[in-house]
Amino acid sequence: MTTTAGAEEGAQPLSPRTMRKLERASGSLASSTVAEMESRLPWFRRMPADQRASVLLLIQNGVAGFVSWLHDPQQSMSLSAEAFRSAPKDISRWVSLRQTVELVRIALELFEQQLPILAVNEKERAFLTEGVLRYGREIAFSAATSYAAAAEARGAWDARLEALVVDGIVRGDPEEALLSRAAALGWDPAAEATVLVGNPSSEDPQEIIYGVRSRAARIGRAVLLSVQGSRLVVVLSGPTEPGGDVLEKVAEAFGDGPVVAGPTTSSLAEAHRSASDALSGLRAVVGWPGAPRPVRSLDLLPERALAGDPEAEWQLVDRVARPLEEAGGSLLETVDAFLEVGGVLETCAKRLFVHPNTVRYRLRRVHELTGRNAHDPRDALVLRVALSVGRLARSRGLW
């Protein structure tokens, strides 16, 4: 058998007669290839006529390119494959890579069946068979390269769109624009959303993206993320129960330093509230050196209030000061006395002229109303700051 390499080194391996037959047969070969595709591929039959016509044109270019390559196998391989190299960029919007592979396979099968028949002798037939295989390999590589380039372009566009969505959440953009962009990224707009902020783990954006997405994938959650200057913002989908470890697993993707999680909102449309609280907590977390990682923004209410966050002040009033005042003077008086004596139960009871069991009962009621246990040092700080903020707000006529 004569090899292609040997043919390239010698004279033209195909006779002028065979070349003319190949040129005349190119149109019918392209038409029969499309007919075979329609027969074997149901999804191809369902394509609109203009898209099938584009595939026909692609095949005609491929046959013409093959004939051009046969004229000069050593010089024209890259040029003849160029038509295929650029075509998937046009059709990749409506034909997947898997479908393109099916189309190429059918076309090459027909090439292998029909082109060698045009040869005038066994030597030419062997050359044509090997040429189809070599040309088909080049076409396959060209198609794969084009789809890879298209995928990279889509990935870059998705990354920019994702950054716009996260930035919109942080800035509180109008709901309609935010949801439409998130939907284009495959985010379920009805899913619960929690915003986490902290330091990025690397200066390499790809490494950051891989770290966040890989950990989110392990827990079966969708995420949106963006690096904004020196901070990493992650929007996590789904519930985050207090007893679960979802937030802890995602926090592993952050760099050194604190990680603050905002409250979980009912949908992405409300996520700007979670982002606002998380960023406020990130600014104030320095005031609590022993804060866990991640720490909830709600657990940073005292530090946020001291840092001048009006939202934190309002939450302290609404969650702690107001419920205690509305419950009656005895609870508020008991909490004040208990905190003043440093949490010593008997001393508090003597100051109030009540039995220690009465103090215990009242503190249990405080815990039920506010979720804060006055015996716990951290909760005691929250209670003290909340009562102070409440009194200041009342003196200014805010409630």
TrEMBL record:
Residues 172-284 form the CdaR GGDEF-like domain. Belongs to the CdaR family. Residues 1-33 are annotated as: Disordered. It comes from Lentzea tibetensis. Gene3D superfamilies: PucR C-terminal helix-turn-helix domain (1.10.10.2840). This is PucR family transcriptional regulator. Residues 331-388 form the PucR C-terminal helix-turn-helix domain. InterPro entries: CdaR-like_regulators (IPR051448), CdaR_GGDEF (IPR041522), PucR_C-HTH_dom (IPR025736), PucR_C-HTH_sf (IPR042070). Pfam families: GGDEF_2, HTH_30. The lineage of its organism: Bacteria, Bacillati, Actinomycetota, Actinomycetes, Pseudonocardiales.
